[in-house]
Design a protein that fits this description.
Blueprint (H helix, E strand, L loop, with lengths): L1 E4 L2 H5 L1 E3 L5 H13 L4 H14 L5 H6 L19 H9 L3 H12 L15 H10 L4 H15 L4 H29 L5 E4 L2 E4 L5 E4 L5 E6 L7 E2 L8 E5 L1 H8 L9 H8 L5 H10 L3 E2 H8 L3 H13 L3 E6 L2 E6 L1 H9 L5
Parallel strand pairs: 1-5, 2-6, 6-8
Antiparallel strand pairs: 1-4, 3-4, 7-8, 9-11, 10-11
Helix pairs in contact: 2-8, 6-7, 12-13, 13-14
Length: about 350
């Protein structure tokens, strides 16, 4: 069980990440690649990613066990500001920290860590530990290559899921403050003030000590939340985005809608009414709000939102007794570029 202890100051400093964290998504997707579960959500993604993976990933496999601890340095706090910023932070890693965290990985060498598609590789990990930062360029190269194959082609879809999650949590914050925000998180997280609980592989207490908590929703995070091992690092809780969970229970799709399906559905969007509806969503709207803003019936608003969701222009997520619609990056691009016209 993971227990995160809040003070009043910590509650005032709870915040949502402004965007998906590319390094967290990359590392967590590496877990999903080796996991045979969630075929409806990740099956097509696994097939496409494996077909593109013609580079080396054995060092990543040594550093990222199938279960348990992986080095905190792989997901630096700077990653929340973008992929390049995160890699720069990793490039400046101190040798003593690298060695300390690699030794922690090595302590679990017999418990399931190993190469991406092979057996445990303690020798490779030992070579990296002994070599120190001289192996960092190789690690950065593997990370870039894997990210280009596994995450970059699906980035717009990942962004849409995280934007939908942010909209839902933002509504909870406005409705009831930080207490309501924490209570609205996905079911595997339980808010029992002043403690946030989650099932976890080990029994652990995290005391925020006035530092607050960054909530980082993730597309590739599954089943349980993840936090950093080192209690002195800036506190972050990575958890499965609710929109991603909803797509699994609804039957799910691969991480990117099939292009031919998108093209067929985009053809339905011509016309003044849907242009108005798309613009009316703004920063997020329930179906009732959408109908009122666009001046259409509730049934019409629901139908238009459904078509635009199938086209990849809108993401829909349940929020309490209502559903919340948000515009995806593709939808936003169409609006800004004037591609949706009367």
């Amino acid at each position: 069980m993971l227990r995160i202890h809040f003070t009043g100051v910590d509650l005032a400093r709870v915040r949502m990440a402004g965007r998906p964290d590319a390094l967290w998504e990359t590392i967590l997707s590496f877990h999903r690649l080796r996991d045979r579960r969630d075929v409806r959500l990740f099956g097509e993604w696994r097939t496409e990613t494996r077909s593109r993976l013609n580079g080396e990933t054995r060092l990543l496999g040594a550093l990222i066990p199938a279960r348990g601890y992986f080095p905190d340095f792989l997901t630096p706090a700077e990653g929340q500001y973008g992929w390049d910023v995160g890699l720069d932070a990793l490039r400046g890693l101190r040798p003593e920290r690298l060695r300390r965290e690699l030794l922690l990985v090595g302590a679990g060498a017999g418990t399931g860590f190993g190469a991406a598609f092979g057996t445990p590789t303690p020798t490779r990990l030992r070579e990296f530990t002994d070599g120190g930062t001289k192996h960092l360029p190789r690690l950065l190269g593997e990370l870039r290559g894997y990210h280009r194959a596994a995450v970059e082609p699906y980035w717009s879809h990942i962004q849409a899921q995280i934007e939908a999650e942010r909209a839902a949590r933002g509504r909870a914050l406005l409705d009831g403050g930080a207490d309501e925000l924490l209570a609205s998180l996905p079911p595997m997280l339980r808010w029992r003030a002043p403690v946030l609980e989650c099932e976890y592989p080990v029994d652990r207490d995290v005391r925020l000590r006035g530092r607050g908590l960054l909530l980082q929703p993730s597309f590739f995070c599954r089943r349980t939340a993840v936090t950093l091992h080192d209690p002195e690092l800036p506190p972050v809780l990575v958890y499965p985005a609710a929109a991603q969970l909803a797509s699994t229970t609804a039957g799910g799709e691969a991480a990117r809608p099939a292009e031919e399906q998108r093209q067929r559905t985009l053809g339905k969007l011509v016309g003044h009414t849907r242009s108005v509806v798309l613009r009316a969503i703004g920063d997020g709207a329930t179906t009732s709000e959408l109908a009122r803003r666009a001046g259409v019936s509730l049934a019409s608003a629901s139908q238009h939102a459904c078509v635009m969701r199938e086209a990849g222009l809108v993401t829909t997520l349940r929020h309490g007794n209502a559903v919340l619609h948000t515009v995806t990056p593709l939808g936003a691009a169409l609006l800004k570029g004037g591609a949706v016209v009367s």
